[in-house]
Amino acid sequence: MATQITPFLMFEGQAEAAMNHYVAIIPGSAIDHVERHGAEQPEFEGRVLLARFHLAGQALMCSDSPVEHGFTFTPASSLFVELDDQAAVDDAFTRLADGGAVLMPLDAYPFSARFGWVTDRFGVSWQLTLRDPR
Fold first, then answer.
1. What's phi and psi for 6, nearest 5 deg?
2. Pairing with 94, which of 43, 88, 110, 127 sits 20 to 30 Å away (CA)?
3. Strand 48-55 to strand 58-64: parallel, antiparallel, or no bridges (unpaired)?
4. Interval 59-107: pLDDT, tens
5. Looking at the domain covering 8-64, what would its CATH class be?
6. For 25, phi and psi rounded to 5 degrees?
7. How far is 43 from 74, CA to CA, in rounded Å?
């Protein structure tokens, strides 16, 4: 069996909303499997225990933590998305920035003809760039 590394996102009650938001924005994405908390923890019943989804072919996992914790996501770790046209970059940026925060505005930079960095309303950080045609 080959070793596999999969990014894992831990939410506090918003895992399903985040997954649905992401698969609606990133082309070639889908939710693959959702396992939910059961009646043994009534206060968490129905929330995501463990989910697997993919964004443009990249596998990810997520859950809703049943334990409140003193940390959240940080821009030090981000999802880097390369898109094929400027309209797709602009659309994804606008939709991810809605309710979130812009860390670097959409613009031309020395390293990309179109790039933007945003933290979405769930706290996940995204770098969006126009794929270099080379």
1. -130, 125
2. 110
3. antiparallel
4. 999 999 988 888 889 999 999 999 999 999 999 999 999 999 999 999 9
5. alpha beta
6. -95, -45
7. 27
CA 11 to chain CA centroid, Å, is 11
Q: Residue 40 pLDDT > 90, yes or no?
A: no
What lies within 8 Å, CB to CB, of 46 at 6+ separation is: 36, 37
Structure tokens at 58: 């990249």
Contact 61, 9 (CB under 8 A): yes
Report how far residue 116's alpha carbon sits from residue 62's, in angstroms, rounded to the nearest whole number. Answer: 24
pLDDT band at 134 (very low <50, low <70, confident <90, very high): low
CATH class of the domain whose range is 79-130: alpha beta
- N- to C-terminal Cα distance for the chain? 35
Domain span(s) for CATH 3.30.720.110 in the chain = 79-130
127 DSSP β-pair partners: 80, 117
Closest by CA to 88, choosing from 128, 46, 133, is 128
At 42 the pLDDT is 85
Predicted local distance difference test score (pLDDT) of residue 66: 85
